[in-house]
Amino acid sequence: xxxxxxxxxxxxxxxxxxxxxxxxxxxxxxxxxxxxxxxxxxxxxxxxxxxxxxxxxxxxxxxxxxxxxxxxxxxxxxxxxxxxxxxxxxxxxxxxxxxxxxxxxxxxxxxxxxxxxxxxxxx
Length: 123
What we know:
Elements: H1 2-10, E1 18-21, H2 28-41, E2 44-47, H3 56-63, E3 67-70, H4 72-79, H5 86-89, E4 94-97, E5 118-119
Helix pairs in contact: 1-2
């Protein structure tokens, strides 16, 4: 819970936040960063049965996602897809990538809005 609380504080998570976690809940990042940090912050978390590259940005738009919990492999796949529209990413405050270093070449290609910071802690 200590790490989850630190993540929630660092990202200033509140009850107004809606996270999206495309990772399986057996992944420690999904459990601690996705689920527990969201609970500590008081927000909501969108889960999916599995990661889908098609429809990813439509889902973030339809659910009003404010932050995304991902890993470099997910962002690399998204980087190969067409860029999302500004409407699809208008509510996203940040994308958090963890569990492995995020290659610098992938970061600009993950295509969150230009004002949307990406957090790259490694674990």
